[in-house]
Amino acid sequence: MSQAANAPKTAAGRAPVGAVPRDTILVIGGPGAGKTVWIARLLDALRTPTTLLNGRIPDGDTWISGPGSTTLQAEFGDLDTKRSNESIVAALEAKSWPVPTQDAVEHVVDFTLTGEGVRTPRRRLILVDLPGSALLAAFAPSNPSTLTIGWTVGNQLARTAAVVLLIDPVRATERSRESIDLANATVAMLEHLRASPEGRSIPVAIALSKCDRGYKTIMREGGVRQFAERHLGSVLEAVGSARVYVSSATRSRLVSPGYREPSTRRPVENLVEPMHFLLGTIDRIDAIRRRAALVMQAEAQRRGHPEPAAVPRRRPARIPAYAWAIVLAGALVLLGGLARKISNPQQPSGPSDVGSGAKESSR
Ligand SMILES: Nc1nc2c(ncn2[C@@H]2O[C@H](COP(=O)(O)OP(=O)(O)O)[C@@H](O)[C@H]2O)c(=O)[nH]1
Ligand SMILES: [Mg+2]
After folding, report:
1. Considering the chain, what is the average pLDDT of its residues?
2. What domain range includes position 46?
3. Would residue 311 count as lying in a domain?
4. Which of 130, 147, 291, 330 minimizes the number of CB atoms within 10 Å of its CB?
């Protein structure tokens, strides 16, 4: 793609404060949670610019873009990313599911986010499709020492700018040995991430996946908030704050007993919205980091020890209170179009707070 060729050569081109640039979005979740399909359908949807109003894709014909609207688009950053994702989308269109992936796959993506207040409209990020097995290997309860985290996962965590956690709500209610182990490993990973110097500023989006099928399960628990409190308690406690989305990357149709085939006729639900939330947060945090770096530089100069402009080493930057409020065990639940369509009329149509959660407040 010609535009991709104009993109910055490496995501590391503009190093933020810290030892390594945070240029990675980790997509995590158990085997079969829907990560691979989710990424492919998201990137496919974002080939066309999508306009959002206050973080949501407005439905209805009456809405016109204006103040408060932002537009998001994505381009494949390299040929491997383009090929692998296009072939998954083509397979889905031909009614077959992708072959399960065993290894972590890194997708290079150039995101363009435009709108009021966006400081870095174009941003190259690596979307890492991290299999549950990698999480288990690194954070199995039998091996809790963070010193033994494999280099690959350790490196990915050090570079993480944002996290998408995919959870299949049907599996989450099953409480099998496997799903408990995976939940524990996920919690250990998130705690590790949060404990790093900049870890508390990393936004986390939880996507309840395959909700074309799982929505009934969520409703049976009394709604998204109750579902999250009952089944995601330890995860929410580990992250402190997250947004929870009810998402669906495809539909599926039962064609023979026990076999469903994909159907891509309907658009994705709540895939673009979480990515928009994460990118907006990365943009704000980046600005905060840059300001902190400038303040440190000025301070150092005032004391007669000029520091290099790029990467102050010894003293990590103090990042002010996060632009997005951290609320212990609170989650901002976003009910998207899917939820509204299936739910009863008194279901809230906009974002609703869980706990004493607050929306992002500052710039
Ligand atoms: N109904 C439905 N099924 C899905 C969806 N996404 C994935 N699946 C199913 O879940 C399986 C695993 O998806 P995949 O993306 O490979 O999961 P991963 O292991 O997390 O990468 C697929 O083979 C499909 O059967 C979805 O949006 N809706
Ligand atoms: Mg996969």
Report:
1. 79
2. 24-280+324-353
3. no
4. 147
